Hints:
- By secondary structure, the chain is of the alpha/beta class.
- It has two domains: 3-98 and 286-296, Up-down Bundle (Four Helix Bundle (Hemerythrin (Met), subunit A)); 99-283, Translation initiation factor eif-2b, domain 2 (Rossmann fold).
- Helix content is 45%, strand content 14%.
- The strands form two sheets. It has a seven-stranded mixed beta sheet, with helices on both faces. It has a three-stranded antiparallel beta sheet with strand order 5-6-8, with helices on one face.
- The longest helix has 29 residues, at 76-104.
- The protein is globular.
- The chain starts with 12 loop residues before the first helix and ends with a helix.
- 35% of the residues are buried.
Amino acid sequence: MSSETLNDNISGASEIFNRAALFLIEQIKDLTESENDSNRILHIAKKILYEQPRMAPLYHLLNLTLVLWQEYGSSNQDRGKLIRHIEEVIDHEKKAGKRIIQHLFPLTDQKTIAVFSRSSTILDALLYAHEQGAVFRVFITEARPNLEGHKTAMDLANAGIETTLVVDAALSHVVRNSDFICVGADRISETSVINKIGTKALALLSREATKPIYVISSENKFLPDQIKMRDEALHPSSEIDSEQRENLHYWNKYFEDIPLTLFTGVISESGMLTTANVRKRIQGLNLQALQALLQKQ
């Protein structure tokens, strides 16, 4: 697996996390005895965060890796222990996804559900609900510029789920004709949620229409505000338009911060969490190793 596999802006956060975790394992396996030092591990961690700076689960994974590297030492046997811990994290995240599916499933039957962009957890939950006999409809917007919503719509329709794909500018139509809204997340802090750009407009429209809007996320995406993420750079203008003209400028970013208070709640592996529950859990996190790494960047 090459480092290019980390540069993925279309897949859902859980899919990207799994690839990055496997990349980390391969990098650790490839270390020689002479390379088994903290500087090399720090280099690998920085590489991952550079390619995916706004993926909260990776911050937790790297915090654990740095802590255990210091605890175990640098022998091949200790390296094997570290890899097993990383594999356990991957397995835990998969189990968390299955528990989230069970919590979301009871909400789906006889409902019209709005989905935004692409979340593999939400997709899996809807596919599971359909397999279990729940009857529902899905509205989803394109999620330009990379059309993640289009990909999700095709997956749902191919599974036999009645799905309506609309343009991004039709968010108000989507909210008005849905019973509730589901969005994923790349990060959840005490004050905000990071997700695909357009989510804030969707959340504001949901509040205006008094429609429930839930963040569907594992608690591995909880990160305190004090953990600062690298700002997202502008992406190529060619993703929006091929035209290049004098005085014509393009602004193309994929993610945005949305106030946590705009959401009805967070559905995690623990069930439905209020914003107060989320804040309490985040405040109990210990990420000292990660903070030390970020200070060196």
